[in-house]
Amino acid sequence: MKKPLPHPQSRACIEIPYFPLQLILHKKPLWKKSPVIILRHDKPSSPILWANREAQKRQIKPGMTYSTALSIDHKVHATTVSLDEINTYIHKIVELLRKYSDRIEPNIETPGVFWLATAGLGALHPCLKTWCNDIITSLRERDLEANIAVGFTRFATYAITQALRPGILLLENPKQEQALLRRISVEHLQLSFRLTQTLRRLGIRTIGHFLDLPSDEIRPRLGADAFKLYRWAKGELDAPIQSLPEVITVSRTIDFDFPETSLQRLIFLMKKPLYELLKTLESEYQKLESLKISIVFESKETLETKVCPAEPTLDENQIIELVRLHFDTLQYSSGIHKVTLSVELQPSIPEQLNLFSQHTQRDLKAGNRALARIRAEWGEEAVVKAVLREGHLPEAQFKWEPLKELQAPHISETSEIIQPPLMRRLFLKPQCIGDRVHATRDDNWLLHRNVNGVIIRLDGPYILKGGWWLKPIHREYNFATTQTGRLLWVYYDRKRRQWFLHGEVE
Question: What angle do CA 259, 265, 271 make, to 5 degrees?
């Protein structure tokens, strides 16, 4: 007998176990029968984010450090997965699931978990189990194993899929769901290593034991993460499915009778399909956010590239100029056989009319347009910003990320600034400036021919040691004041027995 879909309050939770690990094992199938872990960073002190079943059988758990895992099993395979790679694949899965539900929400904190709305699908999928089997079959075609639980609350369906490996479970009513939820072991939840150890010492084995704890004692005794988990399990954080907006792509293709080699003719021939695309967007109250260009050459080679304006726009001249700048940098040996233009849509939101206009001497829109021209000519990596991150060495405590748009400067909360802040400018690579091993604080000495004046004062040293996991490091940092008033940031490397100039304070 066919089982109809549940009532409108029901939802389905799809879990792809060890989602980042499945991506890695798809690329490296020889690792499937070995312990595999994924690290946050490729270094011994990095915490483990995910561990497959073989690793967990050896008591290697998420939250441990890589060095701890190596001490347990030196044959464990370790790698890293970028967040962009995970998010890209998540969006591909969402697009795959759209033919089974109109509302899909991926779990941001746990990659590989998706909630689907089941209401209103009875006409298309009259049998619930067949609907679940079709989803699993579609994912299996992409070499992904999945579990599905159809229930009534977010946390219950999520917890059941964690304990259900592999399989499909259809819950009859909320009472049955809660009864099953209370019997699930907390070991199945992807909790932090510290919280798991604490619950084990307290004798809390199941979610039912955890829910029976007094709510006012959880935050002070177990922490904020445990309290958030408690509220989620109680249903206090339950919310309707927040579906991702569907990505709509509009494209136009230009086929050339003869291979095109002239850039001017190519740009001219692209104007008409681009104009048609912009008119389509305008009729749908949309704007162009990025223009993807797919080029097929006479030699059958293909090239995928993209041009992004400073902000979503319908200005044809601005887009054509960016395309021309970008095509000037392309190098190709054969003529172009076909060009496909496709756009990603962005809702067109009219600017709000302010009663009092705020005038500023800085035109951020003009600056963003200038940056867009630089990206079009030199690539996305040409415009970056420094972002702080954890690192042992000063040069490893920041990384470069693409700068999407300029932001207005933030005014300091301090009402009165007595002294302007100092700025430390770092060199991309420390410069060797001498081997004055016996230089003392009273010994005036010349650091480098590029440094004007001799060193008259050294403040320090500030010792930085470490790097035993790769290469031992022993640096003695000092602030060096020159006779001309410059304040340099230098260090003496005990291993190399050399002085280095790392930066300057302004």
Answer: 115
In tens, the pLDDT along 478-506 reads: 888 887 788 888 888 888 888 888 888 88
Tokens 């758990």 belong to: 61
Mean predicted confidence (pLDDT) in 467-473: 71
Instruction: Tell me: pLDDT of 346 over 70.
Output: no
Contact yes or no for 270/263 (Cβ under 8 A): no
Task: Render the burial of 141-171: b for 16+ CB within 10 Å, e for the rest.
Answer: eeebebbbbbbbbbbbbbbbbbbbeeebbbb
Tokens of 100: 């089974």
CB 435 within 8 A of CB 465: no
Say whether 354 sits in a helix, a strand or coil.
Answer: coil
Q: Which residues contact 371 (CB under 8 A, 6 or more apart)?
A: 310, 383, 403, 405, 406
Please name the amino acid found at residue 254. I
Residues 33 and 18: their CA atoms lie apart, in Å, by: 14
Give the strand order in the sheet containing 36-39.
48-51, 36-39, 77-80
C-alpha 275/C-alpha 268 separation (Å) is 11
The whole-model pTM stands at 0.58
